[in-house]
Specification:
mainly alpha, flat
Amino acid sequence: MIATLWLLAGFTAGTVHFTLLRWNTLLYLTNGDIMRAVGTQLLRLASIALLLALAAWHGAIALVLATIGVMLARLLVLRVMQVVP
């Protein structure tokens, strides 16, 4: 049961991380407020690093499952947000 929670936590954090990546890229490209874009970037990276550090503190299995969750979220977000020509 706890293994499923690490996978779900990684998937949720990864979904938020990669969704904010798209938004963050738009901030860099369109908005003149560079500090907001940099702040979002730092928040994104710090949150995913914190989750993976917490998972590593709980053991190798937790870290692997959280990482798999993040990678599955990446596949999902890329599939959902793809640009169709």
